[in-house]
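Notes, p. 3: input format for complexes.
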Amino acid sequence: MRVPLLDLKLQYAPLKAEILAAIEAVADSQTLVLGPQVEKLEAAVAAYTGAGHAIGVSSGTDAQLVLLMALGIGPGDAVITTPYTFFATAGCVERLGARIVFADIDPLTYNISVPALEEALAKTSRVKAIIPVHLFGCCADMQAITDLAAQHGVPVLEDAAQALGCAHPLGAAGAISEAGWYSFYPTKNLGAFGDAGMVTCRDAKLADRIRSLRNHGMEPRYYHHSVGGNFRLDAIQAAVLNIKLPHLDTWGAGRRAKAAYYRSAFHKHGLDCVLGLPTEPWAGTGVENHHIYNQFIIRAPKRDALRQFLSEAGIGSEIYYPLPLHLQECFQSLGYKTGDFPQAEKAAAETLALPVFPELTEAQQEYVVEKIGAFYALQPVGAAAH
Ligand SMILES: Cc1ncc(COP(=O)(O)O)c(C=O)c1O
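Output follows (386 residues plus pyridoxal-5'-phosphate):
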């Protein structure tokens, strides 16, 4: 049996005719950049998330970049975020000449630790933004984070690249605080046919600035008020996303069901005493989409050997992320060293993403669990990895 980490062909097959018709309609219209499909998507995402404004852009990375540009974040400013995230979260800050300040993660949720954030806020001057990342499709502790931010008068910008469709008691991921962004990279729960992204924000003036900067600060044509970039979203991407968006909640529920199946199967095989399983901090708060499992992450003893064993058994897995950002070569000048963020470092060394997508079958999940059981039967370990 083969179990890929993700199989997008299975999602595409039932939507193929509709998607191809939508692409053909864009081709016939020859309105290829921005235009009505992008406006339709912006309105749909704003309505779906409850965000005041949504601005379609070329990628999740560009969404963050243009937002930070619109907020005027630059040299002399500091931005606090987590070192255990995709590179773009910190890369955008560095590209604008602002200083990245990392705060360690919570070991159970992998999201920014509130005590660590508090400490970073206390010892950093000129903090212009706090960026929690709703990692793997589950929200950070937004109540505590927004409370702390309010005490310090700092805006909270949500990296919801992995979390469109995820909810928190305070609202939809990416639309809880002043502003946020989503990625529609194909492996996200809502994936385009290439790169695409979206910025959301509360303030109408900020939305206008973002719209202008998305198109080189140009209004009218060839008259430039400020230096922006080409962050425009293609109509074909928006047309595909407009077809897929109505399915997002069903897909999210499907992923939650697969996560629940893993949980009970690991328990049945006694593996929940060996592995650290994902936590669901917002379950039981009355919010249905409290985790959308963009990734199902386990903590696994002998992680690298397990990954090799699974690969040989035809099972896909991935390490998100093998080297925390404070130890990346390009951030050496920030002066961080090994040991500075022990929880991020431990997570990088121990975690593994297993296949999770709505079309995954029970037989495939049983096979994954059985193979993990076989691995630990061969290489017994004592306690849980948490
Ligand atoms: C947490 C996080 N932030 C930002 C991004 C950047 O999004 P994109 O790949 O669309 O530029 C990603 C995408 O992988 C992500 O996972």
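The chain has a mean pLDDT of 97.
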